[in-house]
Amino acid sequence: MHHLSPSGRLSLPSPSRRTLLRGIGGAAVLGAGMPLLSACGSSGSAADPKTVSLGSNASDAVPKKAFAEIYAAFKKQSGISVDVNTKDHNTFQEQINSYLQGTPDDVFNWFAGYRMQFFAAKKLASPIDDVWQKIGGNFPDAMKQLSKGEDGKYYFVPLYTYPWALFYRKSVFQQHGYQVPTTWDQLVTLCKQMKKDGLVPIAFGDKDAWPAMGTFDQINFRLNGYDFHKSLMAGKEAWTDPKVKAVFDHWAELLPYHQDGFMGRTWQDAAQTLVSKKAGMYMLGSFVAQQFTDKADLDDLDFFAFPEINSAYGQDTVEAPTDGFMVSKAPKNHDGVVKLLEFLGTPEAEQIYLKADSSVVAASSKADTSSYTTLQKKAYTMISEAKSLTQFMDRDSRPDFTSTVMQPGLQKFLQNPKGVDSLLSSIERQKKTIFASS
User: Fold this and answer.
1) With contact defined as beta carbons under 8 Å apart, do 202 and 256 qualify?
2) How far apart are the C-alpha atoms of 200 and 76, rounded to whole Å?
3) What band does 30 get if pLDDT is binned at 50, 70 and 90?
4) pLDDT tens digits, residue range 355-406?
5) Is the pTM of this model over 0.85?
6) b or e along 372-386 (b: 16 or more beta carbons within 10 Å of the residue's beta carbon)?
7) Chain-wide mean pLDDT for the chain?
8) 12 DSSP 8-state letter
9) pLDDT at res. 8
10) What is the CATH code of the structural domain delimited by 164-319+398-436?
11) Is 3.40.190.10 the CATH classification of the domain at 2-161+322-371?
12) Among 324, 395, 391, 317, which residue's Cα sits nearest to residue 362?
């Protein structure tokens, strides 16, 4: 299920969310020998009223096929062809800025939240309020909020999503008589009991440097609320704020219950300790289900929302990375684009996608969930009932900041929780520099 991450699909050996991050650092090198993204089709074909061009980052087999089936259904219904220009997922991420400033396709795949707002604010995307007048009734309020730019206009049509939560084995909880914790104190007490019972309380692997960001997000929005979290990610709050220090203090309290040796362990290896019942819980996205290849094990997998820390915010925010579509600054076939996006915003389009890729859930609250697994149904309910949805640190903030500052910064904290004050001063200094650049 990782796929919700920027690219990841079941077919990937490792979550592709990260691929995106590499793009920012090492990828410049990788991109050097590659042709730049450019719109497909010549100006002659691009102006064809029966064709909409679409820039796609869905280079993995499963999503590529799923999207092709959506576009075929749209053509059948409208008579309009979607001319797809697929680029390698990482290349797409690395070159998106120059692509959108050049002659991009009419429509392109992208991510909700800050990532979308960044291009909307730079005027590299077109508002689509006209589309939302048609499709608005298909989505819950939290999804609508995720699809708007900072100017309050809509720029995004969401297609699918998945939640981050604490995963566990039902049989392990039954065997030991554990209760699902709903408060921080209950979570700490449960960790202590699991340790006594010979289990690793929280499975953990941070070799790829992104999983830890998920734990930070949960503690921050549970403690300080959605608005503060979003503002911190957008570079508008100080990392030296006592509210941020409090996040690390809470995390330090949980660290003794995290799996040792995490710097050398991938998320997949950590997941295997949950599969083998050596670990009691695992904080991750629902793509963790990928590692449960035996049906009996998969049927035993369950999850719960990260517990409440501050009663003012309860458990009202869910981290649910969401993928969908945007429109470039000057689409050649405006009418065709509107028709395509109205179709992409229907439960029908989502169901076509989900038939091919069952590791995610629909963004629409009107989608037919009858074919969902128990886990998918629960994920869907959790997301559709959330008051606010976040996207994950590397999508809710600038990718250059999360990859070069936060990933190594969180690893420093995990290895030396006592050095947090100087670490936060350093993060704040670097944040100011990065966010000041365009």
Assistant:
1) no
2) 53
3) very low
4) 877 778 999 989 888 888 889 999 999 998 999 999 999 899 988 899 899 9
5) no
6) beebbebbbebbbeb
7) 88
8) -
9) 35
10) 3.40.190.10
11) yes
12) 324
